[in-house]
Backbone:
């Protein structure tokens, strides 16, 4: 681990000052500290923001949900409103990491977590994300867990978060506070595809701090859930996952929100699937037909070709679980 | 058998060292406090083959706290004498820091010493090593092999040609790592020319001889201490390069050195179960009687050592058949040398044989259990020797009954539960009963307590507990009055803690020593005119709860304490020995088991979930049933890993292990481990050893993977011949 300074801040103003000087924000530390130990991350200054008042989970005036950036995964997953109104968030959180990690890791940190690409995490391997211009060892290496969507010739690493997939499905907005004030960025714009700058993973400006993730109000109640497919039953990242929320009235799908995880360089919103569903009546044929569009545009690699098929089947299964009909 | 009443042996006790472990007081290798210790961190090669052309240590040495960087450029030359009493395979072991050659990715190329661990870690990351790299050869499928080890009886090829039924398959099993909880670690201290090391090892004696050979010093000049081992599964059976590095660094630094491998380093700094490719041909008649079997087995080894394990024996004796031909080829690759891992050889052999038997059963439409019954041999056909005990039929009967095997619809893909296809499978298991010479010191003190010591190890099976049980019964003491110590070369020598030989070997020595001390006390009493037992026949005296008395008249007797203090004896002591019978074996000695498994497969999503596993074991006498269960369940969990999850992945472009961590190398977690159950056939094996055990720890892992894969076939109708079975194959 490279030497670094460690400062604990008690309010956002102090945090922003430290952030402006190039400090890296740390809260639960469950990703950053690991990566520092592997010398993948070498921040010279850590700013501990865990004492900031950003832990509350509140229902907004408009009826949305605002999850403070420092809310822990565990407490978010078990929050009564989250459980009742957004099971897809609760399930995505509970299927992630381990109980110990969920007790430490924050929502802000979760969406900021970095890829599990083993070449990224091995400092002796070529990685454009870690060391721009060094190449991508995964492209022609062992890439079973890598992305089939949103990739570039520079990077094929998967975004590892589960809850970010649920957020993407629900069109969540990331609230940021920076030297120039506050702003909100939709999560699907906040997390960046690698393109030719895979080292840039978020649309963050220097010194900006995540203050909250907001789920906009959905006036029509959503039935939602998260399906995560993985080799073992717990404590593993997704091979493929589906976050889906539906609103049915009169036997017709009025709203459909669908995103996939484990397959994209960022949480992958599936508008083609959503559009196929809206206005239709649930049926096995509909699920199959909609899910068939899930992997549109996929660019599989040597070891992850199976994800093309698996993604469609995962979406189809979760549609059936939520929407019924066998 | 002991004339003493057996009350401790066979009792389902918790670990006697359990409290120490759960309260953190049990000291593991890296936890011993040694004054003035400095920390060492190894720098590993980032190329898979080639030469080191330069080592730039300036940045590392400039760091506060960094004391030294040692590489081949400045390391002292070491003797590296041959070591006959070790698990070093044929060939020449890796010589650390003796030349510029890189044999495999991750090979130690330098070590950084610093006053703190953090400084050493940071220093290691700053050492710049330059290489002249070549492309390594790491692919088992593409490299040429050494000359094979072979076996033949009858004429298998001819018999195959005339067999009514012929099957030919190739099975592949992945390289897997032991992945014990405790990382390998060593603390080394020199006192003049004497070396003391605290090491994670399954064999203090092996580490001792290896360090003596490497440094060219007398064996007696090396002391190895290892009281607790946090799991090993075979990885602790050699003194790996890091052990030498710790001792070398301590010599250079003139201070004690502590070196712990990182989890990542354990994937190339210690051994592993090699990857295998096994071709099998089976010939049988229409009723399923085997006529011939041919094995063509390939496994990886390093370029500098020829690692071999016993993958042939099971094929020669598990089933009756006149014709067998086997060839076992090792393929030298640019990798570090493999080593034993739980159920070595036999686990791989069982996977191949038991998968093939399941294929034959399906092909013939014969129940898999029935097929195995039809091929039970009357004697060991590889040697002609009678079996000491072989109760595999009972394992099948008990297992089938307890598992509910007869409820099975034999048709594959015939049982569903929602999205899940349900399947059941079974497999036999076999492991040789190994026992070797061992000694144990037994001392009975005048206060009525006993101390028993042997240089053995307890990597998890519960050696502390089981030896205490054996000694307590033989001495006639309550368990709480017996202390067993282990893990120090100053104690009486024992064989490696491996191959399921510890209970048979060390346990027999403990019993022999304890019997001797008890007899000494009895002799003292019957010859002592002041003893109530004076004049009694020694054979009529037993000891219970620390009191000697007549077997038939418990009122006549006295305690050890009274006897010893009256005779002004501080203690009675002896060193008990066990020697396996000399000369050729008169019996074929093996432990047997049958594993039954039920899996659920979501074929649409490519998921396999284990529902239940039952193991039934013919392992001789069970000394410590609760710990036996712990062994069995652990062995089954390991089998679930082998079948469905575990796979060390190498990037053949540069020999890098790409999943060298526990996030990417998957082992089963609690959620993957369902309803597991173990049953032991009651009994003992009088031919095996004085305490009647046949060994359990290896056996319980053997046959689990094929039982599971056979269940996957039954669930899906798909035969998957490559382990682990992963989603992409099932989709």
Residues:
């Amino acid at each position: 681990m490279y030497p670094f300074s460690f400062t604990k801040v008690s309010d956002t103003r102090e945090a922003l000052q430290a952030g402006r000087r190039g400090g890296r924000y740390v809260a639960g530390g469950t990703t950053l500290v690991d990566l520092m130990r592997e010398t993948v991350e070498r921040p010279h200054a850590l700013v501990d923001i865990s004492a900031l008042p950003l832990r509350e989970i509140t229902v907004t005036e408009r009826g949305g949900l605002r999850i403070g950036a420092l809310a822990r995964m565990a407490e978010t997953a078990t929050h009564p409103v989250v459980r009742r109104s957004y099971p897809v968030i609760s399930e995505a959180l509970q299927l992630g990491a381990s109980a110990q990690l969920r007790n430490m890791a924050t929502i802000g940190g979760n969406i900021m977590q970095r890829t599990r690409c083993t070449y990224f995490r091995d400092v002796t391997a070529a990685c454009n994300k870690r060391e721009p211009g060094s190449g991508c060892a995964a492209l022609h290496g062992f890439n079973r867990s890598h992305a089939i969507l949103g990739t570039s010739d520079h990077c094929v690493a998967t975004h590892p978060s589960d809850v970010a997939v649920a957020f993407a499905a629900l069109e969540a907005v990331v609230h940021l506070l920076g030297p120039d004030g506050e702003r909100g960025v939709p999560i699907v714009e906040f997390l960046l595809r690698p393109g030719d700058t895979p080292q840039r993973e978020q649309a963050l400006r220097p010194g900006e701090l995540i203050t909250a993730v907001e789920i906009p109000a959905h006036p029509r109640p959503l039935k939602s859930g998260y399906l995560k497919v993985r080799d073992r039953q717990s404590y593993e990242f997704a091979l493929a996952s589906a976050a889906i929320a539906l609103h049915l009235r009169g036997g017709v799908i009025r709203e459909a929100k669908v995103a996939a995880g484990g397959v994209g360089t960022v949480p992958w919103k599936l508008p083609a699937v959503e559009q196929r569903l809206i206005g239709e009546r649930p049926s096995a044929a509909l699920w199959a037909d909609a899910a068939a569009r899930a992997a549109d545009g996929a660019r599989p690699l040597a070891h992850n070709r199976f994800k093309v098929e698996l993604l469609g089947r995962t979406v189809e299964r979760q549609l059936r679980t939520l929407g019924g009909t066998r | 058998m002991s004339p003493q009443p057996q009350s401790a042996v066979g009792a389902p006790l918790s670990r006697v060292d359990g409290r120490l472990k759960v309260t953190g007081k049990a000291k593991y290798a890296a936890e011993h406090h040694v004054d003035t210790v400095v920390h060492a961190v190894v720098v590993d090669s980032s190329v898979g083959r080639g030469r080191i052309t330069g080592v730039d240590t300036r940045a590392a040495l400039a760091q506060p706290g960094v004391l030294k960087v040692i590489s081949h450029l400045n390391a002292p030359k070491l003797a590296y004498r041959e070591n006959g009493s070790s698990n070093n395979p044929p060939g020449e072991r890796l010589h650390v820091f003796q030349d510029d050659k890189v044999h495999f990715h991750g090979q130690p190329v330098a070590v950084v010493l610093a006053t703190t661990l953090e400084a050493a870690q940071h220093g290691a990351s700053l050492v710049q090593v330059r290489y002249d790299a070549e492309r390594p050869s790491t692919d088992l499928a593409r490299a040429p092999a050494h000359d094979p080890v072979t076996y033949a009886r009858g004429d298998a090829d001819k018999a195959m040609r005339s067999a009514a039924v012929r099957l030919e398959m190739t099975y592949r099993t992945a390289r897997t790592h032991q992945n014990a909880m405790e990382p390998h670690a060593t603390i080394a201290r020199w006192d003049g020319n004497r070396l003391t090391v605290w090491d994670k090892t399954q064999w203090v004696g092996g580490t001792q001889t290896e360090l003596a050979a490497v440094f060219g010093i007398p064996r007696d000049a090396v002391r190895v201490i290892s009281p607790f081992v946090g799991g090993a599964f075979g990885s602790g059976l050699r003194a790996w390069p890091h052990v030498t590095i710790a001792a070398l660094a301590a010599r250079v630094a003139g201070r004690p050195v502590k070196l712990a491998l990182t989890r990542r380093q354990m994937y190339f700094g210690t051994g592993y179960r090699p990857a295998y490719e096994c071709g099998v041909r089976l010939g049988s008649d229409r009723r399923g009687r085997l006529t011939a079997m041919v094995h063509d087995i390939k496994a990886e080894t390093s370029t500098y050592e020829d690692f071999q394990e016993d993958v042939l024996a099971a094929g020669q004796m598990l089933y009756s058949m006149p014709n067998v031909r086997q060839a076992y080829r090792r393929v030298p690759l640019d990798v570090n040398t493999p080593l034993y891992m739980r159920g070595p050889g036999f686990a791989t052999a069982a996977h191949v044989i038991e998968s093939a038997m399941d294929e034959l059963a399906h092909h013939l439409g014969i129940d898999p259990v029935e097929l195995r019954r039809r091929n039970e041999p009357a004697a060991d056909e590889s040697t002609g020797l009678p079996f000491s005990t072989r109760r595999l039929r009972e394992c099948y009967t008990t297992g089938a009954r307890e598992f509910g095997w007869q409820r099975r619809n034999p048709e594959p893909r015939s049982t569903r539960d929602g999205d899940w296809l349900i399947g059941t499978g079974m497999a036999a298991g076999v492991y040789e009963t190994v026992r070797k010479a061992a000694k144990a010191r037994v001392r009975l003190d005048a206060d009525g307590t006993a101390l028993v010591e042997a240089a053995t190890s307890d990597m998890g099976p519960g050696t502390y507990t089981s030896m205490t049980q054996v000694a307590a019964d033989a001495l006639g003491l309550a368990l709480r009055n017996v202390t067993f110590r282990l893990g120090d070369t100053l104690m009486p020598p024992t064989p490696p803690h491996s191959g399921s030989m510890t209970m048979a070997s060390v346990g027999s020595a403990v019993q022999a020593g304890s019997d001797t001390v008890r007899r000494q006390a009895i002799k003292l009493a019957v010859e002592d005119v002041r003893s109530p037992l004076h004049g009694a026949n020694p054979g009529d005296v037993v000891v219970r709860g620390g009191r000697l008395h007549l077997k038939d008249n418990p009122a006549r007797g006295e305690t050890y304490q009274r006897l010893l203090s009256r005779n002004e004896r501080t203690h009675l002591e002896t060193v008990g020995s066990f020697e396996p019978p000399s000369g050729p074996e008169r019996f074929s000695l093996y432990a047997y088991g049958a594993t039954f498994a039920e899996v659920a497969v979501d074929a649409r999503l490519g998921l396999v979930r284990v529902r239940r596993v039952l193991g039934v074991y013919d392992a001789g006498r069970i000394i410590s049933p609760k710990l036996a269960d712990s062994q069995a369940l652990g062995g089954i969990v390991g089998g679930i890993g082998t079948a469905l999850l575990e796979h060390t992945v190498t990037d053949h472009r540069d020999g890098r292990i790409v999943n060298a961590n526990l996030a990417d190398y998957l082992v089963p977690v609690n959620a993957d481990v369902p309803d597991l159950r173990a049953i032991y056939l009651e009994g003992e094996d009088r031919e095996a050893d004085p305490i009647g055990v046949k060994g359990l720890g290896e056996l319980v892992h053997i046959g689990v993977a094929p039982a599971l894969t056979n269940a996957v076939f039954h669930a899906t109708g798909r035969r998957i011949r490559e382990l682990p079975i992963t989603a992409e194959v099932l989709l």
About this structure: Residues 306-323 of chain A form the longest helix (18 residues). The domain at 223-323 of chain A is CATH 3.30.390.50 (Enolase-like; domain 1).
